[in-house]
Amino acid sequence: MSSNDSIKKTLIVAFSLCIVCSVIVSTAAVLLKPAQEVNKTLDRKRNILAAAGMLDESRGVEEQFSQVTTRVVDLRTGRFTEEVNPDSFDQRKAAKDPAMSESLNAAQDLAKISRRENYAIIYLVEDSQGEIDKIILPIHGYGLWSTLYGFIALESDANTVAGLGFYEHGETPGLGGEVDNPRWKASWPGKQVYRDGRVEVGLVKGAVDSSSADAQYQIDGLAGATLTARGITNLVHFWLGNDGFEPFLNNLKSGEA
Length: 257
Fold this sequence. Notes:
The protein is α+β, with helices and mostly antiparallel strands. Helix content is 34%, strand content 23%.
């Protein structure tokens, strides 16, 4: 047997193995995709509940989420819309599509996101009388190393923070990554967002002085993570400001949403 025959057979075997492996991986990806989508949706619901301080680990996520109503808001008008389907709408993709988003100038772009989608999916929790109890809003913006994605929840007055949480980011563990620390997240509930019509809530350097008249608007800073802290303040100011959800919140309070 010649060496050429041996090389040829080796290549044929290697190629065949590659084809078989590719088929197996592709088949597995297709078969597992429905389960992955279910898990992704479940994780999103878990994060929404957690941000609002409503997650009870002893109960099923779907059961708890049944009290949450999903709606779509047109950020251009600050009103509810049925122009897009919340079950299929991809907010991240929309933000990159010029037909589905608006470019932000430097003065507007506090969150460093370049473009703002025209539509946003929001979540409402109602009490037993059918009145709004909590308003859960998606937020995102740039920190130090990454774009942080999360939710901020407001009480029915659309001014008091009920909770905040980030479900995706790439900030430095132990520094900017402290946004995942339950103790830090626990400092948000009860804080006030607006003062004299302006977004005031934000992080300070160091710890909040509880005796200060401004304490109700202030959150403890992130030690050693000044840029991440500044990014969080900026993204919260953007999404709760005039180019974000403020018009919607005003309409909601006045019954015009």
